[in-house]
Structure prediction request, 401 residues.
Amino acid sequence: MSSKYDALVSRANTVLCQSYGRYPLAIEKAVGCRMYDLDGREYVDLLAGIAVINLGHSNPELLAVMREQAEQLIHVSNLFYQPRQVELAEKLLATTTLLDRAFFCNSGAEANEAAIKLARRYMRCVRYKDAGEIITLEGSFHGRTLATLTATGQGGRIKEGFEPLPEGFRTAPFGDAEALRAMVSQKTAAVMIEMVQGEGGVLPLPQDYATAVQEICREAGCLLIVDEIQTGLCRTGKFWAHQHYGLSPDIVTVAKGLANGLPMGAMMAKEYVAKAFVPGTHATTFGGGGVLAAVASKVVDIMVRDDLAGRAAKVGAQAVEAIRKLQDKHPGKIKIIRGLGLMIGIELTFDGGEVHKALRDRGFVCNLAHGRVLRLLPPLVIPVEDLLAFAAALDDILTKA
Ligand code: PLP
Prediction:
């Protein structure tokens, strides 16, 4: 590592809270599907800021909208009607055909907070039921605020030391419909699921289980919330991952790539549920501000115009085909390849730390989940050649592993 890097890390370790395990890499600039470190070394970005930079870094069309809107209106708050925000809601809801209203916020965790609050308030104030319980799945990840970390179906450092945790959250075993049926009761406000568990190691829900979850919710009269914070916005090969499964959730949350790197989230709900929010019940200062909404609106336009869902399906399948060949070529090294569209997990049979490092040394940045799963979440505009070059590098690394 260079002296520039060492000096920066030393300053960072002095002034920043140490809550992140960071890669030994300092990024100074990023353009398209490439990132550059302090010494100008180039990396292929297969992580996209954790499924955020879907349209590439510094996308020129988005930069133009950002500049134009910044001169027009940056922020006035939700005490006012704002044309860009309404426009965005119309466009975003049109991609779902099932959802009627949107609430804009600043992150994924906040979108899930909004969903949890809406589900509880709907039960109490529309249905007059004392039902506040939220059931999530083992292995899930829903955020880091107190409510969303409690909802998260993982243990360890996510929850450790933050007690007392809020009440009213339960975790159901992954993929077990009968166990879920037994847990859902008159006290349940909602079941919240991810269609593909991202932080959980890229685990798609089995189709029959997903169908059963919706049936169980309908039978019990509780709501179905789908957390599409990572899977939404074309990532999995459809605009929304629940569309692969033929589900009709009552509430859907999204964030990550909504404004391609500007902090933005949204909670969308069906009309009968959304009416539980009345003035004074939920709010945020920045949500859906001018620049955020204008950029997100352009993001949705580009996704539809360029059929990025179709592209994610096609390019994702090409990448998986190349990686599957490695599974045959290196028996006993790749346990399983999972994913949907451009959300790809390669589970190794051994600790992946060295492989992850070797990929970085060769100029490929991806994520390592749970120590063994190489997780690829590249920009949706990534050239297939970059993914094939990644597969070639992995081939070489596995040969030597
Ligand atoms: N839900 C899911 C499925 C996520 O993947 C994440 C973030 O990784 C979150 C919620 C939390 O989003 P944020 O980090 O924007 O709060």
Summary: The chain has two domains: 3-58+307-400, 73-305. Residues 50, 107-109, 112, 141-143, 194, 198-199, 227, 229-230, 255 surround pyridoxal-5'-phosphate (CB under 6 Å).
